[in-house]
Specification:
By secondary structure, this protein is mostly helical. It is 71% helix and 2% strand.
């Protein structure tokens, strides 16, 4: 796997050719494309743990394939969905490089503004600490919201009995 900086220039040129530089859409597309492989890899493991017979039993009970997925399989995979959502959110929220390169001052995320607190006269440590705490709050709150799913996910593959 290549380091993120190795594709920064091609990514910048690509979004420039599309006219998406200095828009939030460039960051959204970049984060989606980078997180997609992680999501597929993680969710495949969780869905592979769910027996196919459960899906078939739901369809025998009159559910459509889509209904069986949303009403039976997806709730069983909720721990994996929660863990994957937290991980992708943390990766996107903490990402600095692409947000710094692709978005101008108006649409930059909070994490990109932190280096602006380092001035030629010194680092504004009080402001850096305050911004760091504010930047951490959404991650902590989101993790608390999906905590039940995460705890269930820790014991999903455990031996029962």
């Amino acid at each position: 796997m290549a380091p993120p900086i190795s594709i920064a220039v091609p990514l910048f040129l690509f979004f420039t050719s599309l006219g998406l530089i200095d828009t939030i859409y460039a960051v959204v597309i970049a984060h989606t494309s980078f997180n997609l492989s992680l999501v597929v890899w993680m969710m495949r493991g969780f869905f592979a743990e769910i027996p196919r017979e459960i899906d078939e039993a739901a369809m025998m009970d009159g559910r459509s394939r889509l209904g069986a997925f949303f009403l039976v399989v997806a709730p069983l995979a909720a721990p994996g969905i929660g863990a994957t959502a937290v991980l992708c959110f943390i990766l996107s929220w903490n990402e600095f490089l692409y947000a710094f390169i692709l978005v101008a001052f108006d649409g930059r995320p909070l994490t990109v503004g932190i280096p602006g607190l380092v001035t030629p006269h010194g680092t504004l440590w009080g402001q850096v600490a305050a911004v760091a705490i504010v930047a951490t709050l959404p991650i902590v709150l989101f993790t608390f919201l999906v905590q039940k799913q995460l705890v269930r996910g820790l014991t999903f593959g455990a031996v029962k009995g």
